[in-house]
């Protein structure tokens, strides 16, 4: 991923609407992994709409700083990976 907050935001702006896998620090040595769609980017945060069958909440938001500090890791899924997973 890019090294500045502005570069991270630009990179996410280019991938709006794409499916992704989100790996986030859940606290106390726990890692949370979710699949969803990048729905919105704002000045300081981005929003991910999560798949309903796997998660209790509909959407989550994280700041670009979370990506910079590697508290959140995002992997964009291309159509080939999605087809294999189904």
Automatic annotation (TrEMBL):
InterPro entries: Protein_Veg. GO terms for biological process: regulation of DNA-templated transcription. It comes from the Bacteria. Gene3D superfamilies: 2.30.30.100. This is ABC transporter permease.
């Amino acid at each position: 991923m890019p090294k500045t907050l502005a570069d991270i935001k630009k990179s996410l702006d280019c991938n709006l609407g794409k499916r992704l896998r989100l790996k986030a620090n859940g606290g106390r040595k726990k890692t949370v992994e979710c699949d969803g769609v990048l729905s919105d980017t704002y000045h300081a945060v981005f929003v991910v709409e999560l798949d309903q069958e796997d998660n209790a909440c509909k959407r989550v938001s994280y700041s670009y700083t979370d990506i910079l500090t590697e508290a959140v890791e995002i992997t964009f899924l291309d159509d080939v990976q999605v087809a294999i997973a189904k």
